[in-house]
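Can't attach files on this board, so I'm pasting raw text. These are the components:
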Amino acid sequence: MMRISMTVNGVRESADVPPGLTLLEFLRDRLHLTGTKEACGIGECGACTVLIDGEPVTSCLVLAVECDGREIHTIEGEAVDGELSELQRAFIEAGAVQCGYCTPGMIMSARGLLLRRPDPTEAEIVEAIAGNLCRCTGYEAILSAIRLAAERSRTGVSDEE
Amino acid sequence: MIGTFEYVSARTVDEVCCRLGDAGPSGRPLAGGTDLLVDIRNGAARPALLVDIKRLPGFDSLRVGPSGEIKIGAGVSLNRIAEEPEIRRRYPGLAASAVAVGTYPVRNRATLVGNLCNASPAADTAPVLLALGAVVTVFGSGGAREIALRDLFASPKRTTLAIGEIVCGVRIPPHGGPVRTAFAKQQRVRGHDLAIASVGGAFFRGSRELRIAIGSCAPTPILLDPIEFGEITADEIVERVAITAARAVSPISDLRATTEYRRAVLPVLIRRVIERLLGPDGGER
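---
Top answer:
C-alpha cells for the assembled complex are below.
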C-alpha cells in the first residue's frame, strides 16, 4: 500500500492504495465518482478521459500512485452548485448525447481543448476528440456542441434564455 | 487492479539503475505507461517492480540548440514534441511523426523515448529520428554512454539495453547546414491506428545527402544506406530508393495488411516523402 494525496474536483483526497490500482479505479471504486466510464481499458476508446493538471489523459492507463500531488478534474467537477457548465448545456442543446456512455470522456477532452485553445479551429476540435469513440451520434452533434460552447465563452453569452 | 507489483518513484538515475539491476528481468522502468500498462493488464508483462522515471531531474527537459541540436529527456511527452515551435519549424517531419502516435490524451502521457524503447517495428517516431542520425543516451551501472538509435533496436519489442540500463534521452546532433524532414504513414483508418508501413526521411541540403528510414516492414525500424545523387531527376531518386528499400525490408502479413500490400505501398510512401524533401516549397508538413 502507498499513501497518496491528490486534489479531485477541488477537494483534497488522501488514501492508501496498492500500486496496481489505476486512476480510473481510484475515482470510481474509492471515491465513487462513477461519472468517469470504463469501456476498453487499454486507452483506445477515451471513455475514461479525465484531466490531470488541466491535460486530458486516459485514466485507465494511469496508476493512482502516479497522481500523487496532482490535480484531477472529472465530469463531476463540471457542474458547480447544481448548475451545469456551459459545455454540458451545449451538449444537451446540440443533441450530442444519445446513450451517454462516451459523454463524460467526450466532455473532458473538449474541456482540455477549450482550456488550451479557447477559440479552436474545426481541425483542432476533430483532433481533440479523435480518441473518444461514440457509436451513437455520428459525431456531428458533438462537434456542434463544442463549437457552440467555444463561441459562447468567447462572446460571453452564457445562456440563451 | 491491473496487476500486483511494487512501485518506486525514483529521485536519481543511479537509484533507477540500482533498483532495476537488483530486480533483474522482473523490473521495468515506467515513463508514460501507455504501452507497459496495457501489457501488464493483458498479461503480456508481469513485472514485480516498476521504477517511475518521470520525476527524475532533467527528464522533462526539451532543449533546442542554435545549430539545430535537440536534446529530449526521457520524460518528455509526444504532445510536447509535436507542439514545440522550434521542432515544428526545424524538423516538421519529427513533429508529424509524434502526432501520428495514438490520440491526444495518450500523447499527453506517452513519451518519445518510450515510443523508441518499446521497440515496436511500427514505432512512428523511429524513422525520422533514424534518418536524422539521432543518438540515445544510455545510463547504467557503468555510467552514461551514447549509442546510435539504429543500435537500440534488437527485434520486435526488444532493445539492446542490458538489465539495469535505461535511456535517459535522445539527441539529434547538430547538422552542418539546413535539413528538411518528412514523414508518411499508411494506416487502415484516419485517426489512431498502428502503421501498416511508414517512411521517414531527412535531406541534408548542404551535403545533398538523402537518408530514408522505414517502419513496420521489418523486425525493427530500419535505416537505408545513405543515398548519393548528382544530377538526376526526383523520379530517378524515388526509383533508386524504392529498389534499395525493397531489398532491405522483410514485411510480414498480419491483421493490418499482407506482405504483398506492404511491398506495394512502400514505394508510394517513399515517393511522398522524397517529393516533400526535394520539393520547391520546403516540402515538409
